[in-house]
Known about the structure:
By secondary structure, this protein is mainly β. The protein has helices at 17-20, 65-73, 86-91, 102-106, 172-175; strands at 24-25, 27-32, 38-43, 46-50, 55-61, 75-79, 110-111, 120-121, 126-139, 145-160, 165-166, 169-170, 178-180, 186-188. The chain has a single domain, classed as Pnp Oxidase, Chain A (Roll), CATH 2.30.110. The chain has five helices and 14 strands.
Amino acid sequence: MYYTDEGLDLDFRHDPFKAIVAPRPIGWISAVNARGEVNLSPYSFFNAISSRPNIVMFSSENKKDAVAFIEETGEFTCSLVTKALDQQMNLTSAPLPRGENEYVHAGLEMAPSRIVKPPRVAASPAALECKLLSIQQLKDIDGNDVPRWMVLGQVVAAYVGEAFVHDGRFDTAKANPIARCGYSDYAEVSELFSIVRPAGG
């Protein structure tokens, strides 16, 4: 079975791209605009792309409030989405009018950040405070602008709940994060296994 971006085989009711590139971490992005209005929204096109410095990326389909707010103020936070918070995360994806607070809509408590102005999700076991590096509108292979914006941010501080730290390591399985798969599907991390990388030459 094979398809191109020009059309799907009749056996596919939906493009399987998001199901193939899965699971994907969820960036639960909180941003504040110049007027102090708060936005909280989940992005499944999200990941870490660098260490030393730690840099994260998320991409927005259409220029939504999070991107516009970050463009205004240059800061954002990213809270870890866990299984215990899956319903609240979903509520924050609702298309609310600009200025309506998703924290309030989802029944979530805000916690102050240390360095940046946007708050983090208080109930999340970990969060990253980020300063904007760049916002780039994406283009297709023909050089045409597409309505997708990629945001890069450098992590300037991180919050980690003490209950999730054991032997100097963050206990990912205990935190029980969830990830986005295709369609309406999600995955959860509840156990880990280790593979030791080959020794260098």
